[in-house]
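R.M. (postdoc): so does anyone remember the format we settled on? I'll just put the structure tokens first.
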């Protein structure tokens, strides 16, 4: 087997932060998953629906790979990205990186990976690759997908070549840390305020706190919107809690990021934001449970309760982000 030495295959909740953790720990930079998520300005919200979709989707983070770019900017990392339409060139990029003793990140469609039991197309999935032989690729994925895993080279090629929503052209990337890595204190305040400004000023009503408010109104229609409510609503709730979000649609991760920042940034604004995101995280988990119960029972009163909670969440998160936007370095 051809493999990179010294890989820490520690798996965490979210695919992109899991991959970033693997790449950075290989360079002796060990940051918690909440810190990676927060420095990458990962928190967001989107209510996504269209005629081509079977059911609406609630998303709690920025679009794929934006988190990686933001983290590289925050820490002054060199981010080298390669994309190509050629499967042969894409594989040569992998061989080059691993041959040079460097793990690399791959963006691909998780549907094709052998170890994925839930066969759903998701073109924004990210894994760390650190080795291969003549049959399989050795990867690090999230905790729920098994951590250190392997998939056939054929399945990896199919996953990387997939086209559709959120896919990239055989995207691979590496990170290089400079000797003078930015201090966390210098990096966290711009990351927090940048995330807050984007959340408070979304360009369309489906995003940020406006998107959460819109969800509070539209969730009341979900029993009628669903082809199969007993399948679709519990599935939506499962995606909010279990699909690499760390629970509570990524709000648990952001709550913990703010708590970690409060250990070295003394600010009432930060403490207020943390308190409100702790409240929001608990309420998001309650919303997921209500949506699931509505689908299983067919009782729209559970959606009425979920809608009320979402309107409250829009207020809570807006107030949290207003406080965090006032944070000063």
């Amino acid at each position: 087997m051809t493999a990179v030495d010294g890989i820490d295959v520690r798996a965490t909740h979210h695919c992109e932060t899991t991959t970033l953790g693997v790449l950075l720990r290989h360079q002796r930079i060990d940051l918690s998953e909440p810190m990676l998520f927060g420095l990458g300005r990962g928190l967001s919200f989107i209510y996504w629906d269209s005629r081509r979709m079977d059911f609406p989707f609630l998303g709690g983070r920025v679009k794929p790979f934006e988190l990686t770019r933001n983290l590289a900017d925050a820490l002054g990392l060199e981010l080298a990205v390669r994309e190509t339409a050629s499967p042969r060139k894409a594989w040569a990029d992998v061989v080059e990186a691993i041959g040079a003793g460097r793990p690399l990140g791959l963006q691909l469609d998780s549907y094709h990976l052998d170890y994925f039991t839930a066969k759903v197309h998701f073109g924004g999935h990210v894994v760390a690759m650190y080795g291969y032989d003549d049959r399989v690729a050795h990867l690090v994925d999230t905790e729920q997908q098994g951590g250190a895993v392997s998939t056939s080279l054929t399945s990896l090629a199919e996953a990387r070549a997939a086209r559709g929503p959120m896919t990239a052209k055989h995207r691979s990337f590496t990170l290089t840390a400079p000797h003078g890595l930015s201090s966390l204190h210098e990096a966290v305040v711009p990351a927090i305020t940048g995330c807050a400004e984007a959340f408070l000023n979304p360009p369309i009503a489906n995003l940020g706190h406006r998107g959460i408010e819109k969800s509070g109104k539209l969730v009341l229609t979900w029993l009628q919107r669903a082809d199969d409510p007993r399948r679709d609503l519990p599935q939506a709730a499962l995606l909010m809690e279990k699909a690499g979000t760390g629970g509570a649609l990524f709000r648990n991760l952001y709550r913990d990021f703010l708590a970690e920042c409060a250990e070295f940034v003394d600010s009432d604004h930060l403490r207020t934001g943390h308190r409100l995101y702790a409240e929001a995280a608990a309420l998001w988990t309650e919303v997921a449970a209500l949506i699931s119960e509505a689908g299983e029972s067919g009782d729209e009163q559970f959606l009425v309760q979920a809608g009320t909670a979402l309107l409250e969440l829009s207020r809570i998160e807006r107030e949290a982000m207003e406080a965090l936007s006032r944070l000063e370095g």
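R.M.: ...and that's the designed sequence above, right after the tokens. Also worth knowing: The chain is about 50% helix and 15% strand. Strands lie at 2-3, 43-48, 57-61, 78-82, 104-108, 125-132, 136-140, 148-152, 172-176.
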